[in-house]
């Protein structure tokens, strides 16, 4: 075992530094047309008339598409099928697709778009989720998608978790703190915008090329909108320029739109979004309102929490029910809490549908639970790290939802290691000294601890599987096909390491098959920090099967086991000459999970990852500007298979967390997002990044995982933003209760 | 209109429309390593060297570049051998999704050409116009430092 845990270079990186990686907009097909989407300019209205006659007269326009042209079901298939591919009677958000056109070139498509005429009868709209819940509010949700319609027509989902006796818990508490926390939109801001190319194929089939996380979701969506069997729809993932959850469900929409045009035109059609179009019309992190009440004894022991949280889901369900579910199961944090009452609601509004974003409904409640921990510590006169240490989950403890943790609980170790690495006490003293000598600047230190349920969990256990096709080529090189995707996170490296390590071959003797639904096994979505864990297990299963065949063959050849790696080409040749089957299929499915929607209790995830971050910030008291001076990030994701890609994930998560907490903001008024690409949506630059973050992994091994690995991708952001927010609160000595902590908001807090 | 550009050492003539940006022309002519991230000069993904200086090619009208020398990411490696910056980005693990990488490397090349021995602040200044959503910039900073050292060594033989 030499490759596991090493900093093996990424097999996908060389093409990227040469500029040779092919992203979707880099591809072209013979006769390819360029698409534009005609979108609703209003948040709510009835479509009276769609007149594309002038569009059709543009000499370079090839065809247009309206709902009448949809051969299958007019839906973007995600979970509830409430979102139409093209709105046919009512529009429910600004930017909702209404009609499509395809032209010979991009410029003509753009010109022709301006010739479309759509008449609407504007209807009253609601964009605030709390207002949308009031009686008499304009109705947004399609009735079938509003699970909570008996309570309110705009209540998509309500989920509760009740354990113990919250009243008694608060009665036993020596201190009780309450708070309300709000977070705004966060845009994924992947550097490559959304895009897909649809190519009609022979025998009534179609191929989609696209920037995406979930090839099999896209396959299902396109099949549904075109009314085709799945076997007729092939999806090929192109190099994907960042995703972060933003390419989980949205590519199903983008690909469906491209496919509708291609199907009618009988030609290849490319649909690539502009930056502004992408920011305005694709999913974002759910804005939230979270109310918290927490009780603790004098020694800091938590006795009860009560949580009420509301997420603004936007106009259609997409992934909001799953996002809400993860929020529910994260809201108690990585702590022992005997008495718990959590109540979450996702609400329909006339705004762009929100969806998956790194953390998936957990960062909003993490901001709240970590703020509450600090408030308790303050009231108790206790150190902030110490109160987390005292309550941290250990092996044998029960989580808030009653799940007994059997193994791999490293949160305590992350707290203790973060204390050492950050030199916590020294740092607090140094900050106090700095503040005493700088009248116009304040430094502060914050800490946050988080837990993350790895994988899809009991909400969709049927998706938590993965496959791997492994083939020994006649020269002893190896081909591997998996159905989870590389999107920058480093999956290619990790899976190559696992396979090459077990087979004893060099990384450059293995080739991963490009992800293509006709060539790779359905491995579920590449989300929920599950790629390395689930596909890694599938690869190990395949390797085990192939090794058994290799051993048989080597025995026949009289090759001793230790010589197998060096003589694999001979063995492979014998497979070829003796007509042995050189291909195997590996399969993995997650450990069983269960969850009771009535009580909210159960074993919703098979394992959890943990992290503790310590952040130090400096606040300019005059301007309200914040700089992130340092960050210590300690993670337990079980075994780390590749130090380089793992630390890259953490460093990136810290900076994305900084964006969420401090710089990134989208104002919304009357259902309209006030944002113009990156000009007004400020993601952190290298100037904002901390000079030299410390990243360390404690490895509480998960025995069923590949070499003991769990999941990592989302966790860094989840821990980082809250540590930064708490550092800001510490610096200014005031409560902070809303993201982003922009200079304006910091100045307001200072004045309060 | 026709313009003439020397792209990666080869002089070529291009037919362009008056409104075409250098980014559009380069990509249309097959230099797909030049990436469009925003089209508004905010992200740096489309950076190329124009007469030796890094520019956001989405902000340059192709007509204005007539007669200029352009270097894109495709022109950086010589006879298949990677440029020290490309090597350093690989060695330091500074590449994740890779979409910002060409622009980031071009901006770094401009920086190191004009400041062979930059301090950390100068590196930050030099690539402040290049957005990356994956890496947190830590490994990119290290890669640029490592490349600077290699390039200085090469220069001093």
Layout of helices and strands:
The complex is a heterodimer of chains A (752) and B (157).
Chain A: H1 13-17, E1 33-39, E2 45-51, H2 53-57, E3 61-65, E4 90-91, E5 97-103, H3 106-113, E6 117-122, H4 129-132, E7 155-163, H5 166-172, E8 175-183, E9 195-200, E10 206-210, H6 215-226, E11 233-237, H7 250-265, E12 269-272, H8 275-281, E13 288-296, E14 302-314, H9 320-330, E15 339-348, H10 363-380, H11 384-391, H12 411-422, H13 424-437, E16 441-453, E17 465-472, E18 478-482, H14 491-503, E19 510-512, H15 531-557, H16 568-577, E20 583-589, E21 594-595, E22 602-603, E23 608-620, E24 626-636, H17 643-663, E25 667-669, E26 672-674, H18 677-680, E27 694-697, H19 715-732, H20 743-751
Parallel strand pairs in A: 1-12, 10-11, 14-15, 18-19, 24-27
Antiparallel strand pairs in A: 1-5, 2-4, 2-6, 3-5, 7-15, 8-13, 9-10, 9-12, 13-14, 16-23, 17-18, 17-20, 21-22, 23-24, 25-26
Helix pairs in contact in A: 6-7, 10-19, 12-13, 14-15, 15-16, 17-19
Chain B: E1 2-7, E2 10-15, H1 22-28, E3 47-50, E4 53-56, E5 69-71, H2 84-91, H3 101-114, H4 120-126, H5 138-156
Parallel strand pairs in B: 1-5
Antiparallel strand pairs in B: 1-2, 3-4, 3-5
Helix pairs in contact in B: 2-5
In short:
The complex is a heterodimer of chains A (752) and B (157). Chain A has 752 residues and is α+β, with helices and mostly antiparallel strands.
Give an overview of the whole structure.
- The complex is a heterodimer of chains A (752) and B (157).
- Chain A is built from 20 helices and 27 strands.
- In chain A, helix 6 crosses helix 7, helix 12 crosses helix 13 and helix 17 crosses helix 19 (715-732).
- The longest helix of chain A is centred in the C-terminal third of the chain and has 27 residues, at 531-557.
- The N and C termini of chain A lie far apart (58 Å).
- Chain A has 3 domains: 24-123 and 194-272, Alpha-Beta Complex (Aldehyde Oxidoreductase, domain 3); 288-457 and 597-751, Aldehyde Oxidoreductase, domain 4 (2-Layer Sandwich), CATH 3.30.365.10; 465-589, Aldehyde oxidase/xanthine dehydrogenase, molybdopterin binding domain (Aldehyde Oxidoreductase, domain 4, 2-Layer Sandwich).
- Chain A has 752 residues and is α+β, with helices and mostly antiparallel strands.
- In chain A, the strands form 7 sheets. Chain A has a 7-stranded mixed β-sheet with strand order 3-5-1-12-9-10-11. Chain A has a 5-stranded mixed β-sheet with strand order 7-15-14-13-8, with helices on both faces.
- With 157 residues, chain B is α+β, with helices and mostly antiparallel strands.
- Chain B has 2 domains: 2-75, Ubiquitin-like (UB roll) (Roll); 84-156, Orthogonal Bundle (DNA polymerase, domain 1), CATH 1.10.150.
- Chain B is built from 5 helices and 5 strands, in the order ββαβββαααα.
- Chain B has helices at residues 22-28, 84-91, 101-114, 120-126, 138-156, and strands at 2-7, 10-15, 47-50, 53-56, 69-71.
- The longest helix of chain B has 19 residues, at 138-156.
